[in-house]
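Following up on my earlier thread - several people asked me to post the actual chain instead of describing it. Fair enough. Here it is, all 454 residues.
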Amino acid sequence: MDLKVGHVCDRGLNPKRPVNQDRFLSIPERGLFAVFDGVGGQRAGEVASQAAADTIEETLAHESADGSSSTELIRRAIEFANRDVLELADSDPAYKTMATTVALIHIDGRGVTVAHVGDSRVYRLEDGRFRRETVDHTDLNDDIRAGRIAREQAAELESRNVINRALGVERDVEVEIKSINAGDGARFLLCSDGIYRHLSDEEIARVLAEHKDPQRAADELKRIVHQRGADDNLTAVVVQMGRARQSPIIAIDDGLPQKRAAGGRIEVDFSSRRFDRSDRSDQSDRSDRSDKEDRRKSGSRLLMYALLVLVLVAGAFYGGLRASDYIKKHASNQSTSAGADSLQPGREAFDRGDYKAAATEFEALSKREPANAAASYWLGRTLSEQRDYAGAAKSFDEAIARQPAMYDAYIQQAGAYESLGEKQKAAAALTRYAEERRRNERVTEPMNPKEERR
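Reply from S.P.:
Thanks for posting it. Predicted structure:
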């Protein structure tokens, strides 16, 4: 069956979230789609989500021909991803509390396997019926499903809406997985909570029903979220099976209360459920690894290289925290000298989603002020939004050349290269990021008192 896809993956507008910790997979030729929402604040949530995405893609590519059912393959891939995130978390103190959600579908003909861990969601729109196919793994929703509290009480108990399941939390992860049938015209939405916390299920259903083109539907979801503040990373993948059909919404089955508390993003507290990882060095645990996993790892040198680069990035970030005061002051001074106020017209256009106008403003500013690194950076961000990833990578490179300590430019450039499918260049950008952070750490390293006296 023909599959058409649209997607958005955006950092949002919250200045306190400078890095996009969401990731997604969109591989129509394999029928594989997934959304990952990294959690852990400043502790490398983006590393967890990227590692999980890479592992799942790699596992399914190497094991899809072994005769296992789709359900078995997906479960195994997610379990491998959980283990890889745990191993990365053990590799560096900066990764200690990182984790990620996953929401995934695998389409094979009319059969669709739906799997998830955490609070990222899968929705289905078919024949005018809109249904949420996943249930958030939170304490509140577990109580509702178990009948301990009534659905009518949910809106008053939002303080209990705490994630209790994610990849990278425990050695054994409980994957919620099921198989469904979907016909020609069915449409799926996979999204992180940065989407649905700003839109009700009715609004999401309307957007999916009104826009035949999956990309337009994804773009409209992003536009509405930006219009309403976009205070978190947001990712949406819209998958169209066969021919798009426009039909009125006749039923909505959410399975959960739609009202969210005004307090913001779902909190994460894994302290009571986190296991002692020191026992994972036991030989008995290591002996459980199968021959299939060994074959999977032997064919993923590029994946492991990328993960090692990410380890380097986080290690440099952790060590570079001592330089934070210097870096903030340094960046502030450069921003002032570059004329930060001149960015305002372009930033306003960017924030309202008028990326064409924003690109015009930032491009003109770059010509007027050749030393303005921020203008090149924001031009790159704007080109990325317009899916001109090659132009974006070039603009980020110009920003880095003008201001090497503009760390987010490296990360954004890596994302642009990743979108182009140039994983080696993406890894190189992350390596440069790590080297620059280490260089700044050395610059600000306190001198030995004996050396000072000399």
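The chain has a mean pLDDT of 79. That should answer part of your original question.
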